[in-house]
Amino acid sequence: MKVSRVQLLLALMGVLGLLTGLNKAVAVATRNSIPRRLMARVPAATDASVLALGNSLVAVGIVEPAFDQGIGSRQNRGILNLALGASSPIEQLLLLRYALHSGLHPATVIYGFYDFQLTHPVELATGDMIGNHAMLYYVEPEYARGFYHLSWHDRIEFEIMRHFPLFTDQQAVWARVEQFRRRISQQGMPEEKTNALGRANDFELLEFPSTPAFIRECGHASRRDLIPPVSEIVRQASEAGSKVVFIEMPMPPAHVASFYDTPAWQRYRGHLKTLLGNKQVTYIDASHWMPDESMFLDPLHMTYEASLRFSQRLGESLREDSQRR
Fold this sequence. Notes:
two-stranded antiparallel sheet; alpha/beta
């Protein structure tokens, strides 16, 4: 059957219309994505005296009212927690820049981390830019590109995709599909342990497989400098007049015993303290602050009750430090 030019044109117009509709639908569905919601908090919080950055450990671990109580901040002059789950130091740098450009002048910038986050190079491909990493498409994309390498194929793909929400925010669609798939797969099966961040077992995948593997990585990491986006967080926060504080976040006792109590990690911690001390950064080791396994939701994240205790203690620690100066 021969297809006429008119029929072909109508078919192409139909496909184009469908893609345009899908693009607009995804744009609407993701207008309140997590990075955008975080950024939307900034204009109303320009009087905040403390800014917190990091990944989900900080997002969950620092509860603003409890921290403000500990540090003794007045109303609206406390902490703004801009930590973003499932993010790299590049996205965290972008959030710092957005806050500073929006008129925030924090006296203190807190950066929470765990394991080798400060020295492990960020490696990304366009296939990794989903979920919260998608903000690399729409928040200072040219600037951010200076902190990670893309192959020539990925560079072309990036330049095309960043103009279309259908591609840049595709995770918003697939996340719903995945949630539906998991609900179906769980029918008739024992219920999986979950929390507000997802399946608890998923976070076990972020753990090192063994203590020897962790010790080997400590050896490699102890010869590395801070990665560029981390150095930029320190530099730009310091140039804005902020005191910079890095927090080694609380970890479960099993993680501490297997990894952080090893001489290799203690040498690596000393290496970090030297690197950060040279930049006039305060280092707080809070890794042992929560010594009970029941204080953790999963292998990484504190419970809400533990987060309240940690936040207040951290605020008190910073207040006492400022009083001693």
